[in-house]
UniProtKB/TrEMBL annotation:
Transmembrane segments: none annotated. This is Release factor glutamine methyltransferase. It comes from Nitratireductor aquimarinus. Keywords: Methyltransferase, S-adenosyl-L-methionine, Transferase. S-adenosyl-L-methionine binds at G128, T129, G130, T131, G132, D151, W180, N194. It is an enzyme of class 2 (transferase). The keyword Transferase applies. Its EC number is 2.1.1.297. Residues 10-79 form the Release factor glutamine methyltransferase N-terminal domain. One of its GO terms (molecular function) is peptide chain release factor N(5)-glutamine methyltransferase activity. One of its GO terms (biological process) is methylation. Pfam families: MTS (PF05175), PrmC_N (PF17827). Belongs to the protein N5-glutamine methyltransferase family. PrmC subfamily. It catalyses: L-glutaminyl-[peptide chain release factor] + S-adenosyl-L-methionine = N(5)-methyl-L-glutaminyl-[peptide chain release factor] + S-adenosyl-L-homocysteine + H(+). The gene is prmC.
Amino acid sequence: MAEAKTLGALLSWAQDRLKQAGIAEGALDARLLVEHVTQTTRLDAMSRPERPVSDTERMAVEEAVTQRIAGRPVHRIIGHREFYGLDLRLSPETLEPRPDTETLVDMVVAEARRLGGEDRPWRIIDLGTGTGAIALALLSVLPAAHAVGVDISADALATARINADMNGYGGRFETCQSDWFEKIDGRFDFIVSNPPYIREEIWRALAVEVRDHDPRRALVAGDDGLDAYRLLAAQSGAHLATGGMVAVEIGYDQKESVTGLFVDQGFRLHKAGRDLAGHDRVLVFVAETAREQT
Ligand SMILES: C[S@@+](CC[C@H](N)C(=O)[O-])C[C@H]1O[C@@H](n2cnc3c(N)ncnc32)[C@H](O)[C@@H]1O
């Protein structure tokens, strides 16, 4: 039981507990948990470590530390996570957005700049939007763009809607519950997606923090991990505006197989991007013979 009576003491207590439990990044996690519970900032901990903490705050930090030691990811406990400078709420059926996915956002923004500038009214569709991470990050940089966030999960779409409103992009973001393109009409300048791409057998071997806390439907895509790409490759041409692009996140070893699927459907690989660890992570395709005329 934490005896801490001040913010500084509570933070030290949480850090010690997580360190003793062998939690990697324990110091950072302790800070995030304490800040979340006490609604304080890093600056508060440094400038006002003597700030008193209430019994309720102390008990809530204890509960959060217990959950963290039990393996629950820190952002799941807090219920939100930062992505591309946006604060995004999480819910049971949303994936925690990963920093690697920012590579996809950067690449699409670069293409938008190259093709005509940030200020164009770009039409974007984000398939498998989850928290809305990719779509909302793009809207944050492209001020006249409009995005449709598609997901099969109603829970994810409700969360994406809250995130859009909370971050000030609600007026340019709409949601659609659909099995990929099934309920989608119209054409888009950018079709973007971070679909599920993990093979069934890999899923079983994943770290418990991913397997037990990220929704399976957000991650697993059949025996070879390519089910979603097959569908996106086959159907994107019918939804792409002239000169448009398809940008997908991939698993580190999927560049060749995913490129093959898109090439077979009349696309050409325009660019490939690597993540922070240097793995192939994003592929951008343009239509060559894929049906792209309106
Ligand atoms: C890897 S997560 C990506 C979430 C978010 N875009 C991100 O990058 O953090 C994949 C998303 O695809 C959604 N999804 C899975 N199957 C789907 C389907 N058949 N149709 C539409 N979305 C689907 C999941 O619910 C999940 O939100």
